[in-house]
Amino acid sequence: MKKSYFLGVLLLIVGLANAQQPTKIWGRFLLDVNDVNYSNEVKSAFEQPAGSVFIKNAWVGLIGNASPQIKYQLQFGLETGRASFKDNFVQFNSMGKIGAVKLGYYRKPLTMEFLNPFHHNQFMERAQGTTLLPARAYGISVLSNNANAKTTYNLGLFKEGGINPTLDNGYSIITRITHLPIVTNDKLLHLGLGLGLTSPVNRALSYSANNEIAKNTAFWITEVSQVENIITINAEVAGNYKNLNLQSETSLINIAHGENLNQYILQSYVGVGWILTGEQRSYNKSNGTFVGVKPLKPFNYGERTFGAVEVALRFSYLQNADNVFIDNLNNVAATLSWYPTAKVRLSAGATRGYVYGLGENQSYTFRTQFVF
Question: By C-alpha distance, which of 372, 363, 335 is closest to 33?
Fold first, then answer.
């Protein structure tokens, strides 16, 4: 069964949906101007893209309800030069004590960083180590569905490698629990824990991580065969204090392979932000994630209001250690963002990254972002 067949089923559901049920067309467009400065070691070892102007992300989607209890989402777009369908699912709400059931092709619920929509990310790229963690797959999940809850849960079973009967079966079981021990008008503390157990397709695994420097840049690659299983543990700490915000995660990945061999990967990041104009980052209680900044006073030249301004700084670290070698990457990223309205954002960012054995590299990016 190919992806197109599955998407066809979803489209059929949309076509049969009650016209009186609410439906929303949404989209986003991100245009980047990027300049990079690579070390001599990288220049000699890799064919790296030069600075350029490119569409970072362009998506259009449809969100609606086939009935008051059945939600659907369809999404198609372009991301770093590749067109694809992503995050297409049906969700059955009001399923009694279990909350809701979600079925389709969507993000695995393991980390806050990846569950946060990309256009709400404070930085030019996601933290480097999160590119190693589970992404999207076909699956079914049981999840909480309370917009006012302090605690969320999400448990999913996913098929690795798409729906392809010619490959050895691969699967993953992913769960994530979050809790808000503190939540007031000006303070919020978020704690989260994610666990994952994966059996990869054909017992083979290929990991790569970019260095947050430029599009399609993977400095760090590891390939493992005869994989028995992959166990991932991810811890989250995040929060707001008035107009200051924090988001931090640490993941430990244990790859069991060969004859009693284990390969460990550790990734961690800490990001802090300060919204100079007094706003707070919005928080979605239904799934335990942060969303974007909504200006208290949107841009209006006649009334002399200019929207929201945020500065953010992040340090990220990635280390691979096994019986053969140890190597690492670390980055420091800084971003200045202006939100004239909740749907428009202009950002300037700089990233300085160190790659084990390949020296330091820098990138500078200006981004224009529209959401509708």
Answer: 363
Q: Which residues contact 99 (CB under 8 A, 6 or more apart)?
A: 93, 142, 143, 144, 145, 146, 153
Buried-state track 292-308, b at ≥16 Cβ within 10 A, e below 16: bbbbeebeeeeeeebbb
Query: 123 has which bridge partners?
Result: none
What would the mean pLDDT of 295-304 be, rounded to a whole number? 93
Please, what's the b/e burial string for 30-42 (b: 16 or more CB within 10 A of its CB; e: otherwise)? bebebebebbeeb
What is the DSSP secondary structure assignment for residue 119, as one 8-state letter?
G
Classify residue 301 by its DSSP letter.
Answer: G
Neighbouring-strand partners of residue 249? 236, 269
Residue 205 in tokens: 């695994």
- Whether 325 shows a pLDDT value over 50: the answer reads no
Phi/psi of residue 104, each to 5°? Answer: 150, -150
Q: Residue 16 and residue 70: Cα distance in Å, rounded? A: 12
Please give the share of the chain, as a percent, with pLDDT higher than 70: 78
Name every residue whose Cβ is closer than 8 Å to that of residue 47 and which is 6 or more positions away in sequence: none
pLDDT digits (tens, 9 = 90+) for 53-86: 888 888 888 888 877 888 888 888 877 667 777 8
Gap between the Cα atoms of 15 and 66, Å rounded: 9
Query: What is the per-residue pLDDT across 20-59, written as a single tens digit (0 to 9) for each?
Result: 566 788 899 999 998 888 777 666 666 655 668 888 888 8
Residue at token pair 């989250």: 236
Torsion angle defined by CA atoms of residues 170, 229, 104 and 163, in that order, rounded to the nearest 10 degrees: -10
Q: Are 362 and 346 in contact (CB under 8 A)?
A: no
| Mean per-residue pLDDT of the chain | 82
What is the maximal distance between C-alpha atoms in the chain?
71
Residues of the chain above pLDDT 90, percent: 41
The predicted model scores a pTM of 0.88
Number of Cβ within a 10 Å radius of residue 346: 14
